[in-house]
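Homework-ish question, so no full write-ups if that breaks the rules, but can someone show me the predicted structure for this set?
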Amino acid sequence: MNPYIPHTDDEVEEMLSKIGVKSLDDLFSPLPQEKRVKKMGLPESLDEFSVFSNLRKLAYKNADAQRYSYFMGGGIYNHVIPSAVHQIVSRGDFYTAYTPYQAEVSQGSLQTMFEFQTMICEITGMGISNASMYDGAEATAEAALMAARFSKKYKVLIADTLHPEYLQTVKTYASGPEVKVEIVEHDETGTLSLNDLRNKIDEETAAVIVQYPNFFGVVEDLKAIREVSKDILMIVAVNPISLGVLETPGAFGTDIVTGDGQPLGIPMNFGGPSFGIFAIRDDRRLVRTMPGRIIGETVDVKGKRGFVMTLQAREQHIRREKATSNICSNHALGTLYAATYLSLVGPQGLKEIGENNLAKSHYLLEKLEKTGHFKRKFSGEFFNEFVVETDLNIFKLKRKLLKNNIIGPIDLGMFGGTKNKLRKLLSKNDLLFCTTEANTAEDIERLLSVVEAM
Amino acid sequence: MNPYIPHTDDEVEEMLSKIGVKSLDDLFSPLPQEKRVKKMGLPESLDEFSVFSNLRKLAYKNADAQRYSYFMGGGIYNHVIPSAVHQIVSRGDFYTAYTPYQAEVSQGSLQTMFEFQTMICEITGMGISNASMYDGAEATAEAALMAARFSKKYKVLIADTLHPEYLQTVKTYASGPEVKVEIVEHDETGTLSLNDLRNKIDEETAAVIVQYPNFFGVVEDLKAIREVSKDILMIVAVNPISLGVLETPGAFGTDIVTGDGQPLGIPMNFGGPSFGIFAIRDDRRLVRTMPGRIIGETVDVKGKRGFVMTLQAREQHIRREKATSNICSNHALGTLYAATYLSLVGPQGLKEIGENNLAKSHYLLEKLEKTGHFKRKFSGEFFNEFVVETDLNIFKLKRKLLKNNIIGPIDLGMFGGTKNKLRKLLSKNDLLFCTTEANTAEDIERLLSVVEAM
Amino acid sequence: MELIFEISKEGRRGFIPPKMDVKPYKIESKYTRKNAPKLPEVTEGDVVRHYTNLSRLNYAVDTGFYPLGSCTMKYNPKLNERVASLSGFSEIHPYQDSKTVQGALKLMYDLGESLKKITGMDAMTLQPAAGAHGEYTGIAIMRQYHRSRKDFDRNEMIVPDSAHGTNPASSAMNGFKVIVVESDDRGMVDVDELKKVIGPNTAGMMLTNPNTLGIFEENILEISKIIHDAGGLMYYDGANLNAIMGQVRPGDMGFDVVHLNLHKTFSTPHGMGGPGAGPVGVKKFLEDFLPVPTIDKKKDKYVLDFSHKKTIGRVRSFYGNFTVLVKAYAYILTMGEEGIKHASEMAVLNANYLRTEISKILKVPHNNICMHEFVATTLPLEEKGIKALDFVKRMLDYGIHPPTVYFPLIVHEDIMVEPTETESKDTLDRFVEIVKKIYDEANEDPKILKEAPHTTPVGRLDDTRAARYPVLRWKEE
Amino acid sequence: MELIFEISKEGRRGFIPPKMDVKPYKIESKYTRKNAPKLPEVTEGDVVRHYTNLSRLNYAVDTGFYPLGSCTMKYNPKLNERVASLSGFSEIHPYQDSKTVQGALKLMYDLGESLKKITGMDAMTLQPAAGAHGEYTGIAIMRQYHRSRKDFDRNEMIVPDSAHGTNPASSAMNGFKVIVVESDDRGMVDVDELKKVIGPNTAGMMLTNPNTLGIFEENILEISKIIHDAGGLMYYDGANLNAIMGQVRPGDMGFDVVHLNLHKTFSTPHGMGGPGAGPVGVKKFLEDFLPVPTIDKKKDKYVLDFSHKKTIGRVRSFYGNFTVLVKAYAYILTMGEEGIKHASEMAVLNANYLRTEISKILKVPHNNICMHEFVATTLPLEEKGIKALDFVKRMLDYGIHPPTVYFPLIVHEDIMVEPTETESKDTLDRFVEIVKKIYDEANEDPKILKEAPHTTPVGRLDDTRAARYPVLRWKEE
Ligand SMILES: Cc1ncc(COP(=O)(O)O)c(C=O)c1O
Ligand SMILES: Cc1ncc(COP(=O)(O)O)c(C=O)c1O
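A: Not a homework solution, just the prediction itself:
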């Protein structure tokens, strides 16, 4: 017997006879019998404790943030997550619910997502948010497609300071509808070169995509970029946590904000799941080309407030091949993480966390520079990560750090197999350090003492 | 500001003025001002992550069952707990509820406890169960008092094979109402000596208390004991897991069953909390002298089934000094653990678990004896623990085992500071080994290879 | 809802235990179970659904305001649950070598130290499993103290008439005769009455301060003196410590023994009726009577200390409800010196604010400054046929958990309200509004109260039937 | 219920972040945020209470039967949640050195191997985040395949009219023109129609089998051949794999690319709309087109492999929804070869049993052996003014989640029921009973359906108003 399947033998018999077939196999008679599977070759079923032990063993083979200090960012960040977040998201009432098609018995999900949309608008300074995309990369790619669709132009400019995996994703997505992708270079500050941008905008250009702060940790000058890019859409991929201290992209007239929601209360999860942020200016025309589920307020038959999925005429289940995106399941549970996280930290907490991240990274950079082994690579202002060049042997450094229970920094020279792009931008001695409020001063001292001992 | 206290300064002002006092201090004017506390000397408040880190550090200093194999029993057992148990008991809807005084909004708690009572009756073979005591020791002590009260006799006989801490607890509880405690000795089988029992029963005797299986792991012969103790109450402290394979105490005419509920899905918790089992024969007179909360079925105004706390006329909040016990808060969450655990394992699971425990312990004993270093101490049948004498250096053995990530056995010679009683019973080379279904054959081999290498 | 037994079907499984991986053992048949227990046979999904749905029938601190007087149903921080479930705390065995549980022992030691500072006591046991268990332990210590001095005649325990039922019960269980002393018209112990009942038989007095009316016993120092002069000891029922922690300490007010309810004051959850934890603190001269073992620190090692010579023995197995202790410890670390103080201030502020506002609607017999709770009465509504129970049952329809009723026994038709510090003014205001609404209903349409609640999963239940024809377990039809 | 913003009060805190323990840094003011976001200011207790109460307004697999056709809302085992939250899985960073994440990589590798065995495919990517994302990826692979062969004219994707909306949408996003092929009167792809639309522009065909009517496409081998002969590729939408896993494999039926919905077939929860995971399997000749990185095993080390030369690139960041993968992996280990087979058998048994019983009440257009789901219609009730929506909304009053309605688009007023294997006969019988009851109501008292639901937290909601006057965020009044 199986603990997930309730059927007793008697019941199976009874059901078969009601159906009017003799055996279970009869139910599969429409299948091409010559192709029936004999053996897939999976192992035998295991009891619960054996499965648990197996997986615990695998888990234990990984170095994790309960046992190691992380100085690693680059899109996924080790932040402190309030305990109440887990308590709430682990309620089966939430996580075993489906997409809220039946609004009357899904007000929990729907109101949560409506609150989430509001919070995303508040932190980004935008007017409309959807109820999540898959992740920051996919959201950014869909923003590029949306921009092309909206403006009916088929070129997008992308800052080379955008996260390389986001860039790759945009390129993949661009290749279907044959949107042209052009790269805008950065200058010595580590931000997008305004000159290059100005030169590359033409009448075919739908949008420019920048990241804020960018992959090097540097804060792009959105005001200046907006001035140069007045006639095209400006798409900004944000790190939402940075918006506790940084001015909102909305304040600079951004058209579309994307980003990865992981820093908002979601564990690192080896990179997924998190969720994609997708928010736009409050624009009726723009929203009609937006991808993803959107929750709206309405009333029930008695005039009581309630929430529903709305503006569905954009979506695949109605519009099919003409839909604004193929997205169906989104990452709704991520909105619950974010909504509970942001409710818990509040405006003051978000600010303090931002300030803490900011202070830690600058403190670490200062100390690293003092060791004489590290040189800051870009002069631009940064938030919680920064690039340095080092004269140390990177392999040795990383080995020593690991031995001292430290994970990070990211070795940009070796970065995720993205040979082409990054190698051109960076020397193989470039390191990307990251700090968050989860790094205590003590952690930093430990890191420094490893460096000093080299 | 504090994350648990909502008051803003403005609100405090407004509330004070409504009350009609000037300051918070005015509210404490009835206190003896000369005794007001200046400084308690507690540390300053900490943020959540710091508290978490502090406690994680402490937790990590303990060797736990996620990292070690346990061959240790003696009242607390390392069993496999189905994952669904945790999912359910960690619902705030359950664990942040109070004692169900308001039945209409506590049907979740009440029905759970009613189901629990039924399950306890089923596994013990008794007629009536209450909704939990504190633990096995306290439940047994209260059973002794109840027996005295019920029979109006003031001597209880206690098998010396009862868990020494239970014995100590009974003695403490007996000393208030001056109930006399007399010890019945065991024979070479490791069970209570029937002769000694027969000799010690007199007309002052209210009850005899035995444990099943007893502290040495040996299964008492309840049938024989019942025959000898016909005229007094028989109190049996059970290990509930053993009742998957062992005949119920109810089948032998036991009057009161007590025991510790920890094996029924509760983590070891360093010994607490678990809960106390308390069940009796289905007897109207007996139940009126029973301690603890009892849940009963009834109907609401419309005839719908519902559950309430009942037979409260026994309890302290009604009867005060004449109550059958002072117990108020019980260990209700333990009933939820047990109810979900027993629902999940079912009759078949309980049997298989029992058989597994039984087989493992006998396998281990056989293998230990084969090494030549261990000799079985008692000839009586046992369930999942047993006592052996060893010629090995116990300290060395334990050190080696620990190094191999093994916790256990219990060194009876050094047992919990209970110098007096146990030392007389046991030589200092006696070890109490325990196995459960959580010990894989592989764990046992590892233990044996340590022994063999000595 | 269906009982889990009613959805059972023979042969279903909800959990597959580890397979037998050694050779089976056959036990002698005289020992073997003949009939399998009729436990539910259901899938994991059945179990999860059943208990999830049951849980939704519950009111809880996590779902709403819970102003149960005498129960301090404050918010239970989630951090505490999280740390208590760390395997290094929850999956350790009490008989492990102490060197393998230094973290656990240190935590208990440190918690004891903190509780000593908070209560002003000299020594602590963390063993008792609940408040009443703490009382039992504390009173046993008092008894052993007198016995150790061969003072065998001290067989009377003085308990005010406002006391919680556990106080007389704990005294009686320890063999004491309970002497009830009445309250005066201010709701406090009548000192003159007290003087009349003390004497050479007086073993001591049990008191909670503030008392169960929420009133601080202003004569506490005098009372302590009277008892001590008579050779008795003072016992502090710490259930109401939330009112005064950080403000004044039992140990400084003349108490010799005190128990705390960690599941009240220190924010550990109540678990639908427990587990709690009821540590007991004593003055130095009583330390040797504490149950064994206590936790001691030897150089930088923590050890279990079994050496107390005059110990009352044990009141339970092992060392206490450890994971409950972990939660209380986390709470104290989070709150710190100032937070503990702030909590009692806000608790008292909330109670007084509610008292002020409620007294505009209902009668509040002792309408002066109260501590963490106060008592109102619906007695004036008796002419409408309304009892306190009717009044509070109606609150359920407004989504609020009723306050305590019919306790303390000395005020008739009483409603005892304890908001705690974790509730906001908004919540209190809504509560007042609801009380006002119900009060108006009582006057205009009493039937709606008599028949309340109307919107709960079940209506008012028949207690009498339950007690008269007890059905205490499910049986197959 | 109130919105969390509506209970906010300036100055309240719900969480205290770590204190600043290094010297603060002041960033240039041109970068700094000028106006703080209006996030809620509430206590931790407020947040817990708010979302706990919201959660109770939800229907979920953990609370009841969820027979949503096409969604496979089976029970989500708790073991899987538990292992996925182990810190060794949930608290690891994607850029850690591979030697520090061997456990994670091995898990992904092994999962990929298992999925290959289950689907009969040769290579797998675990990256896609959902079913539609898998479709996107798979279709992109097909596109790149044709492009790599310089077969630039293949710009048409054939999609049956019964297809899920994501199929045409995914095709379109990849730049394909969607060619719809109709179903015959048995509910299957009309092979003659198919032959008419294929040609040199055919890039491939997307199909789910069993299709969205729950009917197994009996001509599948012929269809595959037709497409392949025309130079096209076959895409398998694996959303319905629960019907056939262990019985027959897409790879053996001629499919070249397949995506799976782990959040359906492999019991990972749906999370009120995600995250899911949509791994894509391909035949050998397409392996080089998979997104990078894939997981490879070199001797006994597991590595990220970025070497695919013809890769479509990336479809997202990092490696996939890892913790979702962990759950699916645990599920496969628990079920094993036999369990996987047993699951599809019981799923199909349940569906046929329900079909048989429901067809006695409602019209079932294709009332032959179905697979894991079937479609009924309320069309005959139209004369009473009853639409499918009315019918299913009434189910809410009986505590059951409605089946899917108005999909697939080819049956009018349809109700698509998928019970899954984790539901018991008792539950199915109750469902039938309820359908019967509602059917009778429809005939006797249609108003009760039109106005349903009556017992839910809110009544039927005004969708039109929501779309016409969109209110997409809360604003202070
Ligand atoms: C004043 C008072 N004393 C003692 C107790 C008993 O505490 P417990 O229920 O933990 O045994 C209570 C609990 O209600 C109480 O309010
Ligand atoms: C047949 C079919 N295909 C594809 C999908 C899309 O899957 P997802 O929602 O995970 O994107 C679904 C989901 O509803 C489906 O039923």
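Now go work out the reasoning yourself. Hint: Chain A touches chain D through 211 residues (CB under 8 Å).
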